[in-house]
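Project standup — Tuesday

K.O.: blocked on the structure for the chain from last sprint. Re-posting the sequence here as requested.
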Amino acid sequence: MSVNYFKPRDRFDFSKDTLDIGNPLQWDRKHFLKHLFKRVFAISENRIVEFYQRHLAYYLAKHTDGSEEVFFKYLWGLIERQLKVLMGKNIYDKDHIENERQIRQLNLFTDMLISVDRWNIHKSNDTVIAQQEFEIITLKQQVADLTAELKEARQWDGYIIVRDGQGLAVLDLCIQMQELKATDGEELLITPAQNTWAKMISKYFREIDEENPGQLKEIKVDKLRYYLRGLDPKDLLKRENEIPAKHKLYTITPKKKGK
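H.V.: unblocked you, prediction finished:
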């Protein structure tokens, strides 16, 4: 019986941080196991060892012929059995979130018990199987979550396709945008590094491959950098290497005020 292994709470003990089992007033000892797990699920991780040592000391004081191995085996069995019960519940159960919290708490207890298990009691087949089942359930849930995240991410994935080999026309538009002014007269787009434009186009834009219809080809970042060299601070549109006229297809014109 659990009451022989774990210290009951003293009557009228209303302390909020007690590690003892039960209520401060009258309660049915037949429900001791229920109260035991209520305490197990409530204590913080940094007090699990303290919980173990407190009840071990109580057990040894009450049983002069007892041993830590006997106490350990009894507690291990209770934790192992309750863990199996929780792991056997349907993940769609209305109490699933609370079940998962309790499973995590019991696994913290399990880790602590393994650390003090000098008798290798935790290496029984049932325990290993239970732990493996828990890990499988956890991994399946992680796979389901990652699959859902990947599906959502792919909805936003893809390239902006540039037709007619006009990757440099996009670069020309980016260069023109650097001349635009915000409503306060200052730069609309602050560009401390010209290389940023090249990297952006190379990463997110693709040209149709004329030699392989239906295929896309990367717009090489070195090609874009070539036309970004030699910026004239006094005239942002002037570069060391001008974009060929056949790629200068558009002119960005600010809207006139009041229109």
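K.O.: great, moving the ticket to review. Helices lie at 32-42, 48-62, 68-87, 96-116, 125-154, 167-177, 195-204, 221-226. The chain has two domains: 2-154, 160-247.
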